[in-house]
Design brief:
The complex is a heterodimer of chains A (about 325) and B (about 325). Chain A has about 325 residues and is α/β, with parallel strands linked by helices. Helix content of chain A is about 30%, strand content about 20%. Chain A has an 8-stranded mixed β-sheet, sandwiched between helices. Chain A has a 3-stranded antiparallel β-sheet with strand order 2-1-4. In chain B, helix 5 packs across helix 8 and helix 11 packs antiparallel against helix 12. Classes of the chains: A alpha/beta (about 325), B mainly alpha (about 325). The interface between A and B is medium-sized, with 33 and 23 residues. The complex binds adenosine-5'-triphosphate (ATP) and magnesium ion.
């Protein structure tokens, strides 16, 4: 969508509002014209195949993009006067870990291997002045460990990351992210690296964690089932663009975009074709910056034609809509 | 932790034993009896036999070896066939000089390499960072003796700021000691600093790409704070490895630098020994040099376990 339409959620001003976000290297555009917002207490999912630009979107919001990447557009947080992308490092780092925080995809490498868990949690409290003394911060760290259901927090606190399992480390990451009661929590595939039983506990901790603090959640995943259990609303991303947005139930039952339909079909384990193959989306995700012009999905789309060589634009509202010339249910194809 | 320390110590002792055998064997497979070598070509068989009997080189090699090794822990390196003087005290005196030189060189190298290498890594996309990396590349190519000669030419001859050589023990006159140590230590340390700066740069570059550094920033640390609090200690681990390995290089550099600055260190003792065909002296000096390298690498191993908890934890 080109211009962010005015809108408001029932519960007041949005916690996060992203308009026209672009991320690129000097040469390639990796995220293009992404606009969405997350209301207070709202849990919004961001889904899409690998390489569609989900992590870049999250990192751009946090201001943690790699040096070689540049972001432009307009990113605003509730209660912060200035636009984030153009703000200075001092202003941005003051928000990170305090007003907004993030849990990363890879728990095995996200923690400092040389520092005890307790200090890594205590640090985020000390940085933002939530606790002023080391001892108080350490005690609070142990409480936070208990709050993410880690058994024997006293003992875990004294450990180094390599002495913890992936699930335990991810809980530590969540404890760090929730420590200062953020307004916005971003989780980037927080359970992808975990096994299924651990996954379910982790998801519950995230949902409870944001609910307790009345925080907004931006939850990235490529697993529709996970998003369906966690989120109220979903953004579907492909080729660096948002191609569809909507309420979870509506989007899962009546997708408008062929890409969303493809994702749904691919995640439906019951559907096996005559040859015994699971359905997948035809073709593969192009490398970053190498998506077709016009509709980014057209080279893999069963419904595409000449018209799709121009970008279809956004149909509907920002909270619910799609970008497609031939949405599912229209007469075409 | 204790078990690891014990294994490492056992490994050190074993390496020392093997090294002593190799050094001894090497010196003794050289053609000619040490006594013959010491006396030179004009010696009569009687003179040789007399010297052999005096220094025990007519005994079986194994006996000679055990005799030599047994003395080492007490600092007894035997008696020179050439001068007839005890070798141990000379080595100890000279070793202290080399220790000061190499130690000061290493400190200078680190003081240069850590900030510059870190800066070059952080600024690797900017002209100043690239320039710095280029300068250190050039520094590596400079041999120690050339650095020494240039420093003497500039600082001693041109500006007449510091003496061009000689040695004053620290106990005798600390100021003069320092004045005379500066230039040789710089010749060693500047070049070594260039070598280390490259390692520091590449390890810091690797650390900058680590996920945990991004986590540190996601907590609200500024980039440089994240690097200092979380990155540098991680970068120190590979740098410490290189430091241990570079010690051998530094000792070789010291041999040359001692010559240039007329310092009475182990290097010049070694060269004197070779010139005088004093095999037992050469054998002793080489043993001490090998000992220094092995002990430092042992300390590096121990330092690892202090730096890196992952190496400590063998439950
Ligand atoms: N530093 C970079 N330089 C160039 N291209 C990059 C860079 N980082 C990411 N990309 C490219 O941008 C595209 C989107 O990457 P991103 O990490 O956002 O994907 P994602 O949707 O999070 O995928 P995944 O599910 O695998 O995490 C990819 O094609 C990736 O190769
Ligand atoms: Mg990702």
């Amino acid at each position: 969508m080109t211009a962010a339409e005015p809108f408001a959620t029932p519960d007041g001003p949005d916690v996060l509002r992203v308009s026209g976000l672009h991320v690129g290297t000097g040469r390639d555009t990796l995220v293009e014209d992404v606009s969405f917002s997350v209301g207070p207490g709202e849990r919004v999912g961001l889904i899409g195949e690998s390489g569609s630009g989900k992590s870049l979107t999250a990192l751009a919001i946090m201001g943690l993009l790699a040096d070689e990447l540049h972001a432009s557009g307009d990113v605003r947080l509730r209660g912060v006067d200035h636009e984030l992308l153009t703000a200075g490092e001092a202003e941005r780092s003051a928000l990170r870990g305090d007003t907004m925080s993030m849990v990363f995809q890879e728990p095995m490498t996200a923690l400092n291997p040389l520092m005890r868990v307790e200090r890594q949690i205590a640090e985020v409290l000390l940085i933002h002045g939530t606790r002023r003394e080391r001892a108080a911060a350490a005690a609070a760290a142990r409480d936070l460990l208990a709050a993410v259901d880690l058994p024997d927090p006293e003992r875990i606190a004294r450990r180094y990351p390599h002495q913890l399992s992936g699930g335990q480390r991810q809980r530590v990451m969540l404890a760090i992210a929730l420590a200062n009661g953020p307004e916005l929590l971003i989780c980037d595939e927080p359970t992808t690296a975990l096994d299924v039983t651990v996954q379910a506990q982790m998801l519950r901790l995230i949902v409870d964690g944001v609910a307790d603090r009345d925080a907004a959640l931006l939850f990235i995943s490529h697993d529709l089932a996970v998003v369906a259990t966690v989120c109220d609303r979903v953004l579907v991303m492909y080729g660096g663009r948002i191609v569809e947005a909507g309420e979870v139930r509506q989007l899962l039952t009546r997708p408008q975009h062929p890409y969303t339909q493809g994702l749904l079909a691919a995640s439906d384990l019951e559907a096996v074709d005559a040859l015994g193959h699971l359905p997948t989306i035809e073709g593969s995700v192009p490398p970053g910056g190498r998506f077709p012009d016009g509709c980014v999905f057209r080279n893999r789309c069963p419904r595409g034609d000449e018209r799709c060589t121009t970008w279809p634009g956004w149909t509907g509202t920002e909270r619910s809509g799609y970008a497609c010339w031939y949405p599912i249910g229209s007469a075409h194809g | 932790m204790l078990i690891q320390l014990l294994t490492r110590t056992a490994t050190l002792l074993l390496s020392l034993a093997v090294a002593s055998i190799l050094i001894f064997a090497f010196m003794n497979v050289l053609p000619g009896d040490p006594a013959e070598v010491a006396l030179g070509v004009g010696a009569t068989p009687e003179q040789v036999a007399e010297l052999q009997a005096r220094y025990g080189t007519d005994r079986p090699l194994a006996t000679q070896y055990l005799d030599w090794v047994a003395g080492l822990p007490q600092g007894d390196f035997g008696t020179s066939f050439v001068t007839g003087a005890a070798i141990g005290p000379q080595i100890v005196d000279r070793f202290l000089v080399t220790l000061w030189l190499v130690g000061a060189g290493m400190v200078i190298a680190l003081v240069i390499a850590v900030p510059l290498g870190t800066f070059a890594a952080v600024r690797h996309r900017h002209p100043d960072g690239v320039l710095l990396a280029g300068v250190s590349q050039v520094g590596i190519a400079v041999p120690n003796f050339l650095a020494g000669i240039l420093l003497i030419g500039l600082v001693s001859v041109q500006w007449q700021l510091l003496p061009s050589g000689g040695w004053v023990p620290p106990a005798q006159d600390p100021v003069e000691f320092a004045r005379r140590l500066i230039l040789p230590a710089l010749s060693l340390g500047l070049v070594e600093g260039a070598v280390l700066a490259r390692y520091v740069r590449s390890t810091v570059l690797n650390v900058l790409r680590e996920d945990f550094l991004r986590t540190a920033r996601s907590k609200g640390l500024r980039p440089y704070q994240a690097l200092v609090r979380h990155g540098l200690r991680n970068a120190a681990i590979p740098v410490v490895t290189v430091l241990g390995l570079q010690l051998a290089v530094l000792l070789v550099g010291a041999v040359v630098v001692e010559r240039v600055f007329v310092l009475p260190g182990l290097g010049s003792l070694l060269l004197d020994g070779v010139a005088n065909r004093d095999l037992l002296l050469v054998q002793g000096v080489v043993m001490v040099l090998v000992l220094a390298v092995l002990v430092v690498n042992y300390l590096v191993d121990v330092l690892y376990t202090v730096l890196d908890p992952r190496l400590r934890a063998v439950a």
